[in-house]
Amino acid sequence: MTTIRRKDRLAGLPSGRRGKYAMLVFWLVLVAVAGPLALKLTEVQDNDALGALPATAETSRAVQRAQEAFPDSQKPLAVAVYVREAGLTATDRAKVDADRAVFSRYADGGQVSPPMPSDDGQALLLSFPVAGDAGQRADAVADIKKRLAGDVPGGLRTALTGPAGGEDDVFDAFAGMDTTLLLATAGTVALLLLVTYRSPVLWLIPLVTVALANQLASAVVYLLAEHAGLAVDFQSQSILTVLVFGVGVDYALLLIARYREELRRHVDRHAAMAVALRRSIGAIGASAATVALGLLCLLAAQLPSTRGLGPVGAVGIVAALLAMTTLLPAVLVLFGRWLFWPFVPRYSPDAVGVDVAAEHGVWRRIAGFVGGRPRAVWLGTAAVLVALSFGMLNLSIGMPHDESFTKEVGSVTGQRMIEAHYPSGSASPAEILAAAGQAGQVVAAARTVPGVAEVGEPEPSADGRWVRVAVVLADTPDSDAALDTVERLRAAVHAVPGAQALVGGDTAYLIDEQRTVSRDNWTVAPLVLAVVLFILVVLLRALVAPLLLLASVVLSYAAALGAAGLILDAMGYPNLFVGIPLQTFLFLVALGVDYTIFLSTRAREETARLGHRRGVLHALTVTGGVITSAGVVLAATFGALNVLPLVPSVQTAVIIGVGVLLDTFLVRSLLVPALALHVGRRTWWPSTLARPVFRPVAAPPAERVPAAS
């Protein structure tokens, strides 16, 4: 009784006659404070975290040693490449010399090394570190690109590549993308809400509410980044926007659907909202807790970009929950029933005891189909999902740099030009850092490694303690052959006594990244499953049902990855970025279980009233429409990530979009209810609902409450 009274009081706050005004004032103050802070979120982005590795990784230790031993040369390398297939001319060489003189003003140390010719006489390279901080480098690279493209002799091709060129291409690609993503997400949600409600007004309410939730979430993330050291990058900010809009609108759809039911049973809209909020807040709260705690499991990851996504996303979920359970109810009751025009739900005394399932013709027929042959339905659905999962064979883990963008960029073009005329590793050599006393032995060991094309002369540090040795690989830096070469190189130089050798560079980075991601997958994924299982057990007060639901979402994830594999392979993007499997697993398990939470909580409620079989089918009937709408909205919202010009964003959009749709139309609509019917009342074991002596408690589908104050 105490819990019920507490829920009644909470439901009465935003739905009360006076409470709604207090809630609106509270949100006006909150938004007035949060708005200016939200605009500053981009100022605290640290996109270096996107490429960072744990401090314990060998690449990170090599970078740290290089920064200490060679503090004046730790700047990203710009590589200008000039190619004429018929052979370079004197005019071409004059262009290179003139560019070299200009580039010296941007080079760290003020000098650019002489151009390096290719063996075939068709190409020249200028390589130099770019001086300055991030802002100064961006301006410098823009000038370098302009100079490189200017006064080019006919037939000569030029491009800028290397880390500096790649860094600039990323910034160019994402220029203005935060606004574009926000507009695409809001536009998608607005269109789907308009179609869902078929009302010229109602769709605006959840859209505006979720936009304010996004402002609140952005403001909180900004404060945490500014004052608590929270790492925020472009990826996490993009996911924040999509999460808040997608999940927030899902919660709105669930609440508004329940509110519409209660408006037909209550003459007072305040009382209708109080009942609707009390009956739906449990499922909404459990859903939010599942997703938020699942996201916080990412704190156990070692990869900084993955770990930072957790708290950022969790803040978004909490903001969406707060807005949809406080602000949205207050606005809905403030404006009244006319918001639903032209389909206004009118109060009818006859509706008090009427079964609302009668209004859901399509889903009543689907429930009848599931209830007719539950075993055949769940076995058939499971077979379809298993068959789809074989599409994963089209996917591979590991994305080459030249496949990272959805459009051609200069750094990729330059890399391909280099590969055609130089040893493939010329633009991204491996780097050995070792004790100066063993430099000769280290160099000798490196030269014996198969796959090494060239070993440079040792460069001593200013204090004479360390040397740095550049090692050019024979293969493309991100190829499997290059990865194997660096593994052999590490083994060879580590074996030199007293050398304390470390091997860094782009290829070494890929090796350490793969190891880190593999460790994170085996750590975080089981943790997410354990958290989801715990929440389901507490929510449903059962053990069998949570295990069945958890198995269903894992199967759904495998099917989503397989179906997405077919799509991505057709799109030409079958090589997944290494962090994609874990991130999409988290979202699909946490978000996918949302819909089963909405269904199973209603099923438990109806089972107590109607018995197991009738309760499950009734829950499927009355929740089918709203949960399907919520799934379509969430899938389309994640689809907005397709506007970003990076292949990992497209891969995320496809996998999550397909997964949510599979979960909505197959898992939640067919597999879960059919499986629950086949297992029978044991689904609710060990709760009282599973006991043979249990008898349903007859009760009207609506509760009558006095008008909220």
From TrEMBL:
Q: Record's GO cellular component, any one?
A: plasma membrane
Q: Pfam family example for this protein?
A: MMPL
Supply the name of the protein. Answer: Putative drug exporter of the RND superfamily
Q: Where in the cell is it found?
A: Cell membrane
| Every SSD domain range | 202-334, 548-678
Q: Which UniProt keywords apply?
A: Cell membrane, Membrane, Transmembrane, Transmembrane helix
What family does this chain come from, according to its entry?
Belongs to the resistance-nodulation-cell division (RND) (TC 2.A.6) family. MmpL subfamily.
- Species name: Micromonospora eburnea
The protein's topology relative to the membrane is: Multi-pass membrane protein
Major site of localization recorded for this protein: membrane
Which domain of life does the protein's organism represent? Answer: Bacteria
